[in-house]
Structure formats: C-alpha cells, structure tokens
Amino acid sequence: MVCFTHCSRNMRKQFACPFPTDSLSTGRQVTRRFIRFFAWLLLRTLLALSCALAPAAQASDGVEIKRAFIEAGEEGYRLSANYAFDLNHDLESAIQSGVQLYFTTEIEFTRPRWYWFDEKTISARQTTSIFYNVITRQYHVSIIGSVGQSFNSLDEALFLIRRPARWLVAPRGALKVGETYNVTLRMGMDRNYLPKPIQVNAFNNSEWRLASDKKTFQYRAE
User: Fold this and answer.
1) Which of 209, 216, 104 has its CA nearest to residue 164?
2) Does the residue 57 lie in any domain?
3) What is the pLDDT of residue 201?
4) What is the mean pLDDT of residues 180-190?
5) Cβ atoms of residues 163 and 82 within 8 Å
6) What is the pTM of this model?
7) SS3 content of the chain, % helix, strand, coil (to 5)
8) I want to staple 127 with a disulfide (CB 3.0 to 4.6 A). Which of 61, 88, 104, 118 is the partner?
9) Are residues 79 and 143 in the same domain?
10) Mean pLDDT of all residues in 174-189
C-alpha cells in the first residue's frame, strides 16, 4: 500500500491551485479554485482512510500562548496577549483557495471559595476570521461584529491574529477590587465555523487541529 505521505504529495501536485492565466471571468476563477481545493480535500480524506496503516502526516505544533495578562482601565478589564503558531500546508492551501478560517479566544475568571465550588465571575469569547480575496489578492482579518483590515501578505494578516489588540473582556464593576481571581485562557482555530462539507474532514484530520493548551494565571482585581 502506498504510504499516505507519498500519495498526499502527488495529490497536491495534481490539485494545485495556481492563479488562473486564461481569460475566464473572475466569478468562474473563484469557483474553479474552490472546487479544485474541495476535490483535493475529499480525495485526501478518502486516501487517509484507505492508508490507515501508513505513517500519519505531521500535525501542526499548535498555538503557544507567549504572554497573557489583565489590565485595568476606566472602561474595564482588558486582556493583553500574544500567540505563536504557524499554518501547516493544509490550512494555508485552504486560505489560498478561498476558505475562510476562524480563530476563537476564550477567557474565564473564577473566584476560589473555601466553602463551595469556585465562583464563575466572567466568561467571554472573541472570534477573528481570516480569508483571501482572489479578486483583490488581499488577505482580510476581522473580529466578528467589527470592521476588518486588509493586508497584502499572509504573514502580515497572521501578525494581527498572533498579536491582537487589547480585548475588553469585562466592564468596570464586574470584579471585586482586592479579590484574587483565577484566569483561564485558551485560543485556537474554531472548526465550527467552517463550511459543512469541509467540517467532515476538519474534525477527523489532525492537520486541521490548531489550538493552545489552557493557560491559567492569577489576577488581583484593581
């Protein structure tokens, strides 16, 4: 049985999605790129099932939370965080083919209580999307519900996700001044937002798992 890595390499060459050079209309170009990517993804999934005994493809190392702390201000409490991660070949090919990817950050504040379970004080989540516009040849990054930004390169777009602006996670008064809280943070790609046909592959393919471990630290409310 041909190993998965060898087959995958051949399929990538067969279903590569370079920019069209013919005179097709822009709409047909976008559709053609997406169909080619989906066909490659479907065949890759079928091949993975048939080559179950072959060595698995190397997965991404995941997301590393490099820095995370809470800042108190007039508006409330903001999270300042930096993340480190790289996109593997599958995820980068998905973006280049017009698939929109989403990254969700989740944060939770709990206050320890000696007489009962910890009190969950704050629970919030924020999702950022990234996609490539084949027409303008630009990458767009936006927080859901807000205005996005455009970039000429993938690295520039990913930089905004790796080093996001400070996020207002709770208003003033949500925490008791002087109390110490346990803050739990995690960040990663949110596969629930993917188109349904791609979700089948994403939830069964380690190449589509890009997430951090939970990071817990303490914060004394100011």
Assistant:
1) 104
2) no
3) 77
4) 96
5) yes
6) 0.72
7) 30, 35, 35
8) 104
9) yes
10) 95
